């Protein structure tokens, strides 16, 4: 099959995505301010907690069964490999360009993490509807594409928040977070002791004033001992809760709403009684699935608009060196795709992948996407490299219009 028609097939969905992204950037400008920073913050919360888990759970529950889950076991491995290879290339980039220590984790994260969520949900199903698509029936192709992209989003979130987040945290925010935790551990017991200390003083005065009667003195001693027990119990409970706080926070970051959407979607798809009750035109609880589907439909346009609004930060002035941006572009759009071709071709050669061209195409595309938008969240969270991250995002997403379709066309040619 010719590369030119395949390039056009891959280019049209990306062009659609960038047109919606451009609208998001326009309405987020200060002169219009429909999608200002405050509005994006609230919209992002709705997408994160409602839209994304809905679209992920809905797509997986309708498409995946026990057999299809078993046949896609390589996808989590492949996503993990994209992170590991990106980390290696990012480490080499830091060494070659001599990046300042405060910016190294941000560049490493931009190289390691790709937009394996909403971008795949937008581009791959749209590719199925193009005339030159090599993936057969558009309806069946689109259903499978949505399922593969949804699984990719859930696995990506799990690895991102367990791997990339901790790389940046350990490099930039570990000491700061440790101080906060220590303060939380000590402040609660102190406040209890100070509050109870005034009670002890009053009790002591009361004992001295009424020491002539043994009964009252004995009663007060019992009350004092009970008070001391309460203080000790309060201190132990406070320290125990504070000690669990880092683990609770880590679990909350690790298991995002999209991850829960993956778990619930696969549960419904795999377990036959749940599937019969929720999925299908005759399912008794099909209204629930329909409502979730309606919520999921809002994920793609809303996220794309927010992404466009966030990209206008790239117009700000920054002292970032051009070599840093070029380095990230080389890693994300040249080194990783070439490595991905070698890995997927090797997996096919050894019989690790089932012969589905669309599945193999999705695995290859996972190596050729721009950096994950969550990196901007991390840079804001730790207050490190925010302007530099914005510049990197602006240029990598601008180059998506040419480089991503180019690689997509090559990938379609390889699997068709």
From TrEMBL:
PANTHER family: PROTEIN PIN-LIKES 1 (PTHR31651:SF33), PTHR31651. The chain crosses the membrane at residues 6-30, 73-93, 105-125, 145-168, 254-275, 287-312, 324-352, 358-379, 391-415. Involved in cellular auxin homeostasis by regulating auxin metabolism. Regulates intracellular auxin accumulation at the endoplasmic reticulum and thus auxin availability for nuclear auxin signaling. InterPro entries: Mem_transp_PIN-like, PILS1/3/4/5/7. It comes from Dendrobium catenatum. It holds the Pfam family Mem_trans. One of its GO terms (cellular component) is endoplasmic reticulum membrane. This is Protein PIN-LIKES 3. The lineage of its organism: Eukaryota, Viridiplantae, Streptophyta, Embryophyta, Tracheophyta. It is a multi-pass membrane protein. Keywords: Auxin signaling pathway, Membrane, Transmembrane, Transmembrane helix, Transport. One of its GO terms (biological process) is auxin-activated signaling pathway. Signal peptide: none annotated. Belongs to the auxin efflux carrier (TC 2.A.69.2) family. It is found in: Endoplasmic reticulum membrane. It comes from the Eukaryota. The keyword Transmembrane applies.
């Amino acid at each position: 099959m010719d590369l030119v028609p395949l390039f056009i097939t891959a280019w049209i969905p990306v062009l659609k995505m960038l047109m919606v992204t451009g609208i998001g950037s326009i309405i987020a400008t200060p002169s219009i301010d429909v999608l200002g920073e405050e509005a994006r913050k609230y919209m992002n919360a709705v997408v994160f907690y409602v839209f994304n888990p809905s679209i992920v759970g809905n797509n997986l529950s309708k498409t995946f069964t026990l057999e299809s889950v078993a046949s896609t076991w390589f996808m989590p491995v492949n996503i993990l490999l994209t992170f590991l290879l990106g980390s290696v290339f990012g480490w080499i980039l830091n060494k070659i360009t001599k990046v300042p220590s405060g910016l190294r984790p941000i560049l490493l994260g931009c190289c390691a993490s790709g937009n394996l969520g909403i971008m795949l949900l937008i581009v791959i199903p749209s590719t199925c509807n193009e005339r030159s698509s090599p993936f057969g029936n558009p309806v069946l192709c689109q259903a499978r594409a949505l399922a593969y992209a949804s699984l990719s989003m859930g696995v990506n979130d799990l690895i991102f928040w367990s791997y990339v987040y901790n790389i940046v945290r350990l490099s930039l925010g570990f000491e700061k977070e440790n101080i906060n935790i220590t303060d939380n551990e000590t402040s609660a017991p102190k406040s209890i002791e100070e509050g109870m200390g005034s009670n002890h003083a009053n009790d002591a005065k009361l004992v001295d004033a009424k020491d002539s009667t043994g009964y009252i003195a004995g009663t007060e001693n019992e009350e004092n001992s009970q008070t001391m027990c309460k203080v000790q119990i309060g201190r132990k409970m406070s320290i125990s809760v504070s000690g669990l706080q880092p683990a609770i926070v880590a679990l909350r970051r690790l298991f995002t709403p999209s991850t829960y959407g993956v778990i619930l979607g696969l549960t419904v798809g795999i377990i036959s009684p749940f599937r019969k009750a929720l999925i299908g035109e005759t399912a008794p609880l099909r209204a629930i699935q329909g409502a979730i589907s309606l919520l999921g439909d809002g994920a793609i346009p809303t996220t794309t608009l927010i992404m466009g609004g966030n990209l206008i930060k790239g117009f700000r002035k920054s002292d970032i060196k051009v070599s840093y941006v070029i380095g990230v572009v080389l890693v994300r759009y040249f080194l990783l795709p070439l490595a991905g071709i070698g890995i997927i071709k090797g997996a096919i050669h050894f019989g690790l992948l089932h012969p589905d061209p669309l599945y193999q195409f999705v695995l290859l595309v996972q190596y050729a996407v721009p950096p994950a938008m969550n990196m901007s969240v991390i840079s804001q969270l730790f207050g490190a490299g925010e302007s530099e991250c914005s510049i990197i995002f602006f240029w990598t997403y601008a180059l998506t219009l040419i480089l991503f379709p180019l690689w997509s066309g090559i990938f379609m040619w390889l699997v068709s």
